[in-house]
Design goal:
72% helix; 61 residues; mainly alpha
């Protein structure tokens, strides 16, 4: 079973979480957010419970 984003974030160090949260505020697109979280589309799709193709479509919008 895929891990939820909350579970992944909780597993990170406090410093890494803070860096991601600060960077998230600066980013505007899903692709930027995904890359900041160092995830590939398939990982993000699994975390969100959707197909990789959905993430790809959303990033292109």
């Amino acid at each position: 079973m895929a891990k939820k984003l909350d579970e992944i974030m909780k597993a990170l160090t406090a410093a890494r979480r803070k860096k991601i949260e600060q960077r998230t505020l600066e980013l505007a697109t899903l692709k930027d957010l995904r890359k900041a979280a160092e995830q590939i589309q398939a990982d993000m799709a699994a975390s969100l419970g959707v197909g990789q193709d959905m993430i790809s479509r959303l990033e292109k919008q």
